[in-house]
Amino acid sequence: MIQSFQIRNIGTYDAAGISCDNLEKVNFIYGANGSGKTTISKLLNNPQSNCTINWLDNRTLETLVYNKDFKEKNILNSSLKGVFTIGEEDIDNERKIIEEKVKLDKLIDNIRRYTVTLKAQQDLLTALEEEKVEAVWNNSALINHDLLRSSLSGFLGKKKFFFH
Q: Is residue 6, in this structure, part of any structural domain at all?
């Protein structure tokens, strides 16, 4: 079992760090949000250079840490690897959240694709309208007769006005 541990220079812990001594076989770590509980649990589960763990009789054992990483690895993203006492509602709610996030991601992807398609269609429509205006303007010489000139007054000088 772990007899004590020290943590320095990571997360909320400065160079002085913390030291937890006289640990038991089972230990609960609790505190306010942002106080470093997750940092402790991650380092106990996967020690790094800024964490010293002292084992009883220097015999390192498997460390079991129940935190968010544990739940995701062992419960949500794989088949159950053991028996756990966790409220079914919590697991169902987390699964529903994951399912809804997948649906949301698909919808966001569809919106992106449709936006690109819409922009392409709008550009094509603009080009076709300009082509149509140009074609009518180029053929305006056929109707530019003296009888029509007075009724088309104000429209003969500009392509768009003439077309509309």
A: yes
- What residue numbers bound the domain in which 6 lies? 2-65
Question: In sequence order, what are the residues at sequence separation of 6 or more whose Cβ sits closer than 8 angstroms to the Cβ of residue 22?
Answer: 3, 4
Q: Look at the chain and report how many structural domains it folds into.
A: 1
Contact call for residues 82 and 31 (beta carbons, < 8 A): no
Whole-number CA gyration radius for the chain: 36
**What contacts 40, CB < 8 A, 6 or more positions away?**
5, 7, 29
pLDDT in tens, the chain (164 residues): 899 999 999 988 999 999 999 998 888 888 898 888 888 888 888 888 889 999 988 888 888 787 777 777 766 655 555 555 556 667 778 888 889 999 999 999 999 999 999 999 999 999 999 898 888 777 766 655 555 655 656 555 566 655 55
What does pTM read for this prediction?
0.42
Cβ atoms within 10 Å, residue 160: 11
Residue 120 lies in a domain: no
Nearest to 163 by CA among 130, 115, 114, 116: 130
